[in-house]
Amino acid sequence: MPAATNRRKTGVLLGGVASLALVAAGCSNARPVVDGTPQCTTWTEVRPVLEKQCGSCHGGANPKGGWDATTYLSAIGVPAPQATFLADTTASGVVTAGDANSKLLTVLGSNATVPEHRVSAATLDLLTDWVVDCKLSALNSAVHAGGILNPADPDFHGKLLQSRGWDFETCSGCHSDDPKAFDFAGGTAHVSCLACHKKGPTDCTTCHSSISRDKAHGPHLTGPTLGHQFQCKECHQVPTKWDDPGHILDANGKPITAPAKVTFGALANATPPGVTRPGPATFDAADESCSNVYCHGGAFTDSKAKVPAPKWTDGKDDAACGACHGTPPQNHGSATECSMCHGDMVDSQNHLVKLDEHITGSIHLLPGVAANDCTTCHGGLMGNAAPPPDLSGDTSTSAVGVGAHQAHLNPTNGLVSPMACGDCHQVPKTVLSPGHIVTGQAPSVFPQSIASTSIAFADGATPTWDAANGTCSNVYCHGGGQTLSQDTAPSVNRNPISWTAVNQNQAYCGSCHGIPPEDGQHPAANLSTCASCHPDFDATGYPQANADGTIDHVNGTVDTHAAP
Fold this sequence. Notes:
Oligomer: single chain
Order of helices and strands: HHHHHHHHHHEEHHHEE
Number of domains: 3
């Protein structure tokens, strides 16, 4: 039996009675020192051995294998910066109290395969005594057990404090210079708690310092990949001090043993303008899932969102793009170019560029989009919302997206007033109106939904658009409709040559009806005689402009002089 074990046994036999008074006083199981002889092998004896034998590799800023042999907590595998009060496991697996098969013991010895691991029998006996028999004892004390600093030990001071109902006054009596001030600076014990707990044992970081390793706390507190760092208050009622009722003590000062209560804050319950949320943000403790939480898209009821009600224990996909809202969302059609409307938040590759402003309760839209200004995405160069430029940025009339838009909205031939966008397209009320943004699909031309208001459908015309050839036909403005369809004059061109053949004389007097129309109702005439029947024309046969500059020609009504 190693010498250390012999003296430990002796210490217990000689000193067992000496600690009874301290136990009765309320401290943990006593481990007395008798005649200056330590009762058990402790870190005080082990540290210099580990530093000498292992410190050159297992020490410093980047210890080999992630194991640091130079401090007590790191040697027993407590994750940096420190364990929580109630930790029940160690991280590294190098040592386990009471386990003779701990890695530290099995890789050492005279026959170790790694030369640096070949230690003497005396060293191995010392380490075995410390790990197995003394269960990683940190110290020998007439007050505290050897496991007082080991989070995995039943005698860990955090667990003892919890078992005593968080009675810090007992600790302060020995560890505070002023027991009533709870400064924990050393006191009569001459051991300061501030060496490990920099802000004091009652600070939030003492119990919650390793919270980032607990399930989904880390991604929320350290900053998920798609958003900013969240504050504790977003999910919990945060106390102003440790002993506030409802924190770890109830209104009667009794310890609360139930898990921390989830009480969602303002952000989780945010409701953006125009959104009707299905209900308040809630947490189901039974299956650890959230629902109706704004941060996960629960307020939007987007059927394309992949994980709008995540589980607390699920993986990283809960915060992946597309988890909280579809890509695109349900009410965005098939739009996939997010930067068109959210250019201040995402780049052209749909990568977020402002993480700290994402998931804040506000929907970031480009100013023009927010104001439903059509020129934000197309048009604007000619003073109206029609291209150029088109959605691809083209400005040439040879591009289908540009074509003859301006020839219709800014006609220069004197035959017609400017056409409205609604004469050919369904004009959305807002950017997100259904059917507006449809990525990969050209805007609908002459949809039936505009038939009652569009001049293109006047007089029973049935306008159509041939996207393949870039031509339109049977449009009232180009001679379509019941009345003009009876005109058989050879000059009529009811199928304009091409949408992109701008300034090629496709709209001229005689292209939509003959001069005169050959419909059996017009006698032989020429332009100079049009005014005799049609009051809106001048002596040259061209439409006269009204006082406001508008022209009544091509307005869906044939104006004639009253019969005598």
